[in-house]
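Posting this for the archive.
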Amino acid sequence: MKIRRFSPKQRKVLTWWVRDNYHEAIICDGAVRSGKTLCMGISFVCWAMRCFDRRQFGLCGKSIISLRRNVLSELLPYLRQLGFQCLEKRSENLILIRHGSRENRFYLFGGYDESSAALIQGITFAGVLLDEVALMPRSFVEQACARCSVSGSRLWFSCNPEGPQHWFYQEWILKSRERHALYLHFTMEDNPALSERIRVRYRNSYSGIFYRRFVLGEWTAAQGLIYDFFEPESCCVPPPEGEMERYCISVDYGTANPTSCGFWGLRNNVWYRLREYYYNSRKEGCQKTDAEYVEAIRALADGRPLAAVLVDPSAASFIEALRREGFSVERAKNDVADGIRVTADLLKRKRIVICDTCGDCIREMGLYTWDERMGHDAPKKENDHAMDDMRYFAMWVRKQEEGGFAATYVER
C-alpha cells in the first residue's frame, strides 16, 4: 500500500501534537471516505511511540471486528512500511508495537453497548483512540477517557455525524474549545486518494438523512420517510425462478401486535425477500399460539433448508417452540438505529431486494417514518413490523459479510 500525498487537513492531523502543548484531544468528523481514519491511526501511533515507552494505549471501535476492518487492516501494513514492528496477539486483543528501543502495548476494545464500559475498567492508558465514537455508548466513551491518567495523555476521536442532539456533538464538538480539543471537519475532497468517479459513486449511494450526514458531513436531525429512496416501481422485482443458494427466515413476533416473517433466498450475492407471512391479530380478531406460528414458518419455508430463523430476541417462548421443532434459531440483533443504517446501505447496494410478492413489506416501506419528537434517531412505533424483521435480517447479512459466509455467528 502506497500513499503518495496527504491533503493539508490530513497533514494537520498527522502533525498537530508535535509542538502543540495546548490541545489535550483531537476530534475529526465529517463525510465517509474523507481520509480521516487512516491518518488518525498513523498519527496516534507515531505520537505514542515518540512520547512514551512501555506504556498501554487503547484502540476502540464500535466492535473489535469493525475496528480490525476499518482501522487496522490499512494501518498495520502502513506502519510496517514506516519501520514499525507490529506483533498482533489476537487471542489477547493486543498489538505490541516496537520502534528502535521503544515498545508500547495497544489494547483493542469494542464499545458496542452499555455493558462494554465494564470491559475497560481498571486499566491505565497513556492515550486512547476512539473510532466511530458517535456509535458508542456514552458510558463506554467516558470510561475510556477516565482511564487516561498518565501525565501527557491525550484523547483521539473520529466519527461520522449523527443527530444534532447527540451527546458527543453537544458535549465535545460544541464545547471543543472548553475541552482544549482540536476540532477538524472533513469532506471527501480532503481525501486525495479518492478519484472524482469514486466520489460520485458515494454521492449516489445515499439519499435523505444519510446523504446529509455521510456525504455532506452534517449533524442533522432525522425526519420524514426513513427509506425515502425506495420506490416500488424501480426497486421491486419478481421472485427469481428456480432454487436459491441459501434460505433464511426473519421474524418480528407479536401477540397483540402483528407478526411479520420474511422468507429470503440468496443468489449471486443478492438476498431476495421472496415472500412473506403477515398476521395482524387485532385486525383478524383472533390471536394465534406459538404452535400456530411455528406451522406458519414451516409453510413459509415449504421444505427448503434454512440457514437460520432470526427472531426478535424478546420472544423467548416462541424461540423455544421453534427449537423444539428442530429449527436453527438465532436471536436477532435488535439495535434499531444501527440496524436502519445497515438496512438502508444493503438496499441501496442491492444486496437485499424486495420482491413484488411482499405486499406488507412494500406497504410499510411507504409509511415508515422518523419520530421527530425523540432526541435521538428512532422510528415511529407504527407500521414497523415488516421493517423490524427486515432490519433483523440486514444485521445478520452484515454479520455474514464481516465474518465470512462459512463462519459461525460470532459475538461482538
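The chain has 14 helices and 14 strands. The CA atoms of residues 230 and 365 lie 7 Å apart.
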